[in-house]
Amino acid sequence: MELRRKRAYDTPSAEDGFRVLIDRLWPRGVSKEKAAIDLWAKDIAPSPELRHDWHAAPDADFEVNAERYRAQLHNESAEALQALVDELNGRPVVTLVYALRNTEHNHAVVLQGVLKPLLE
After folding, report:
1. Which of 36, 57, 76, 77 could be 12's S-S partner, Cβ–Cβ 3.0 to 4.6 Å?
2. In angstroms, rounded to a whole number, what is the distance separating the alpha carbons of residues 78 and 55?
3. C-alpha span between 61 and 56 (Å, rounded)
4. Hey, is 6 helix, strand or coil?
């Protein structure tokens, strides 16, 4: 399986495979048709508190916020994580779609790292 990341504001393509929106909120200004989302996994997104902290200082505290998100995924979001793994198993290409501008320091990077070993 190939697990990719892409911003919600980038043009969808056939190479994206199964597109999963991993944000709690729908991306501002993006229509459902334009987004071409196959699954909206909002229960897997960072909690509102963590999302706020992440937006306040996305680069400065990346590792701290990433560790908090990993803990959230394995504790209070464990059922949602397992449901997502079950949904994605067997799909050749999956793209995690997110809205943040920062493509290197965001929850999609963390989620991709958590999902990879679970989907192999």
Report:
1. 36
2. 23
3. 9
4. strand
40: helix, strand or coil: strand
3 in Cβ contact with 116 (< 8 Å): yes
What's the whole-number average pLDDT of the chain? 93
Q: Are 5 and 99 in contact (CB under 8 A)?
A: no
* Pairing status of strand 39-40 against strand 2-7: unpaired
Residue whose tokens read 């067997």? 90
pLDDT above 70 (res 23): yes
> Strand pairing of 93-98 and 2-7?
parallel
111 within 8 A of 96, measured Cβ to Cβ: yes
In this prediction the pTM is 0.93
pLDDT for res 105 = 87
Q: Apex CA 36: angle with CA 33 and CA 39, to 5°?
A: 120
Helices 62-74, 78-88: axis angle to 10 degrees equals 80
User: Between the CA of residue 11 and those of 14, 36, 51, 99, what are the distances in Å?
Assistant: 10, 9, 24, 13
